[in-house]
């Protein structure tokens, strides 16, 4: 009788363990520091660890926009003041030195988990504490056809060190030269290396730079069908920049095509009340000659 009861108890324990394993594999688990996405997980050994001050606000800075954040403790409050910044602050009336909680941060390209321990041993009592997220220390997701900001930055820096190879896409007006140094392609993306030079003593303040596909021959302005493109990434913000001598920037676009009767136009406008404007145009076959960069 005792042997039979023992066998039944052992069998139930095995069923319970099997059921728990199946249930755990179907969900994302943040409390025990494992994040499941299909068959891939962040294990305990891969969890990032940090010590944060009790009386300060902690900021997490991500290279990509943050999509979702989970905090394992209800006594810690957080928000997203910017798309790529998450900030949190423990409730000092409920959280004490030595307390430990977990933060899971999800971006479009990676998931990272932090196990945080609270301390009051800090040189700043009311300042900010910053943690910079490293995609290499997290679980990579959706990387097959999507570039993150860090990858865009790395590609732009790589292109920055290359010499100019295109000399037939250029224009000149108002004492300014405007040209394309190079056109690159990689995967589903195109990058334009754009440069300008101010040959006058009057500085050129950029109001905006626009990218459009326009008709080669406009018979009637009312039926013109211009299509404007927004860059996926720009190395430097152009608006508000001042061209005193040389200027250069890199723009990444999702790969696009346009017919032979169209042109791609880059329009560089000065701030208002001056009226200087430069238009740079090229045909689609220039894109077909783009150089690969990885």
TrEMBL record:
<dbReference type="Pfam" id="PF13595">
    <property type="entry name" value="DUF4138"/>
</dbReference>
<feature type="signal peptide">
    <location>
        <begin position="1"/>
        <end position="20"/>
    </location>
</feature>
<dbReference type="InterPro" id="IPR022298">
    <property type="entry name" value="Conjug_transposon_TraN"/>
</dbReference>
<keyword id="KW-0732">Signal</keyword>
<protein>
    <submittedName>
        <fullName>Conjugative transposon protein TraN</fullName>
    </submittedName>
</protein>
